[in-house]
């Protein structure tokens, strides 16, 4: 059977490192689908992953996940390309840190659309369209376990992601679909720079380290990981 992984937020940070590591010769996948918004960075990321991929097929699908309904177009394109998804890595993430006084409902909704509703749609469409899913990896955050001052919308979206993963793990188990939730701590990416602008990125976890944990999760040994919400942090 062909195995295909869909990685959202694959243009940079943890998502790009995950696509790169899953493009190596020992990859469990025959096909890697990268999703992010159309940009020069995304084109470069696609070229980078393709150059490493050897016989593994790499497909880039541009989509703005702040509009969850676009997920239908993503699956239409998968249909056109003849790709059946076996693993979804819900990694795309957005944050706009602000205090309760400064937070707007608009920004809260945007955060929820990217961090929660699109992941929900990516999973639901795979089920509705009969993709042979066996693994779902949802990237939440330690911010979803412990709320932090100034991170209201982001922390709330990630807490919801942890809880949605719990529900799905229970609900999809009878269908042979494993649902794993991974909550990284601080990791040196653009998103982290927004949350902690003065921090030295060389002192914290690197995106390639999180990507190696994700790779483990996609392996046969990774199937033995029974943690409901796996935390990785320095
Ligand atoms: N870095 C950390 O400290 C940390 C800690 C815990 C959890 N996480 C989580 O890890 C995941 C990856 O984040 P990262 O740290 O690697 O951040 P990043 O480098 O900023 O990357 C975020 C990714 O999400 C994509 N994305 C954002 N908005 C999008 C939209 N509207 N439509 C489609 N894609 C969108 C971006 O693609 P484009 O902008 O190119 O579209 C990019 O590929 C996120 O879920 C984040 O919450 C990060």
Structural overview:
This protein has 234 residues and is α/β, with parallel strands linked by helices. It has one domain: NAD(P)-binding Rossmann-like Domain (Rossmann fold, 3-Layer(aba) Sandwich). 41% of the residues lie in helices and 16% in strands. It has seven helices and seven strands. The chain has a seven-stranded parallel β-sheet with strand order 3-2-1-4-5-6-7, with helices on both faces. The longest helix is centred in the middle third of the chain and has 24 residues, at 105-128. The protein is globular and about 50 Å long. Bound molecules: NADP nicotinamide-adenine-dinucleotide phosphate (NAP). Residues 9-15, 36-37, 39, 41-42, 64-66, 91-94, 114, 139, 141, 184, 186-187, 189-192, 207 line the site of NADP nicotinamide-adenine-dinucleotide phosphate. NADP nicotinamide-adenine-dinucleotide phosphate binds at residues 9-15, 36-37, 39, 41-42, 64-66, 91-94, 114, 139, 141, 184, 186-187, 189-192, 207.
Which fold name corresponds to the CATH topology?
A: Rossmann fold
Q: Report, as a whole number of angstroms, the end-to-end distance.
A: 37 Å
Q: What would CATH call the class?
A: Alpha Beta
| Total count of domains | 1
Largest sheet: 7 strands, parallel
- SS-based class: alpha/beta
How many helices? 7
Query: What is the global morphology?
Result: globular
Q: Mind telling me which CATH architecture this is?
A: 3-Layer(aba) Sandwich
Unreliable stretches: none
pLDDT average, as an integer? 96
């Amino acid at each position: 059977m062909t195995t295909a992984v869909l990685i959202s937020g694959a243009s940079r940070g943890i998502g790009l490192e995950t696509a790169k590591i899953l493009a190596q010769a020992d990859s469990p996948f025959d096909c890697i689908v990268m999703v992010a918004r159309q940009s020069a960075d995304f084109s470069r990321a696609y070229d980078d992953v393709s150059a490493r991929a050897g016989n593994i097929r790499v497909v880039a699908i541009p989509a703005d996940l702040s509009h969850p309904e676009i997920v239908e177009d993503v699956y239409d394109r998968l249909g056109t390309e003849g790709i059946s998804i076996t693993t979804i890595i819900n990694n795309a993430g957005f944050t706009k840190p602000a205090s309760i006084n400064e937070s707007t409902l608009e920004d809260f909704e945007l955060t929820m659309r990217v961090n929660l509703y699109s992941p929900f749609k990516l999973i639901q469409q795979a089920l509705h369209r009969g993709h042979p899913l066996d693994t779902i990896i949802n990237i939440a955050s330690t911010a979803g376990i412990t709320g932090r001052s100034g991170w209201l919308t982001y922390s709330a979206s990630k807490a919801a992601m942890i809880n949605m993963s719990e529900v799905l793990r229970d609900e999809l188990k009878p269908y042979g679909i494993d649902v794993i939730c991974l909550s990284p701590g601080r990791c040196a990416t653009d998103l982290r720079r927004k949350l902690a602008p003065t921090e030295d990125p060389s002192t914290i976890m690197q995106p390639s380290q999180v990507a190696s944990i994700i790779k483990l999760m996609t392996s046969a040994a990774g199937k033995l990981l029974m943690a409901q919400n796996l935390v990785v942090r320095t």
